Write the structure tokens for this entry.
Amino acid sequence: MLHRPRACVCLFLAAALAVAMWIYNVSRPGTQAGGCPEGCAQNADRSDGPLRIMSLNVLHGFPRFERLRERLDLIAEEIRRQDPDIVCLQEVPWTPQLGSAAHYLAEGTGLNYLYLRANGNRWAMLFEEGEAILSRYALHDMDFAELQPRAGFFEHRMVLGATAVTPWGEVRVFVTHLTNGDPEVNRAQADSLMTFVASGVHDLAIIAGDFNASEDSPQIQDIRRQAVDTYRVAHPEDGGHTCCVDSLFSPNGESLDERIDYLFLLAPPQHRATVASCDRVLDQPFWVSGGWLWASDHAGLLAAFCVNQLC
């Protein structure tokens, strides 16, 4: 029989190890993307027009997940209404009540999807969130990376990439969400992002997400030297503000005051890709159940592209 002091030490060490393992696993980036990248799309019929791509920060809303299911239904309804071919999503949660929001949205819109965890861990803390790509077309050649440097021990910023096989040819799609902390860390993560993008782009590419950086920041200026800022091309003089709603229950007419969400186009000369349009979506609240409700604290973007004269 162990002496009591020795038994206490063993119990303490076992508890300390369990706590350490929990801390280590409570927020870890995903080691693989999941979902249904092809064969699940039920929305093959599309309205006529150019290639359409949408991007939105969903707002996971941890820990209260305020009106999450209702907000996801509003987002799904807007996706069906706008009929995009590809949707890039950030802050896509997993919760015990709902399960995977990526799966929920894909099922509600009839699209294929990929999802990659960025933060949290459903097994360790019953919550996680990350990036997702929804697509009418098959998604191949999935790849991802953690952007460097890390802003904190529990904070991970990821980029998820995949190739959509479309009637306009293969389109490489990247979705990301940069830190909203130290601006210098944000800038370094933007450099990390573009290095990752450059390593895997040979054809038409889209980079979409919440960059948490203003249009006049050095990192956005650097990206604009490499890629087309689709909203600015379509609206040279408009502010293009996409963030942020103070309250999800704010009335119609609340103004957004920051531009931190972007949808960039990278197009080799042989593709002759042009921006047909780019507009904000979900930039007003909905009247539901006797009150106003925003789908997210961000507005989304919807861009349309003519590729090789196909519009």
The chain has a mean pLDDT of 91. The longest helix spans residues 4-26. The domain at 30-306 is CATH 3.60.10.10 (Deoxyribonuclease I; Chain A).
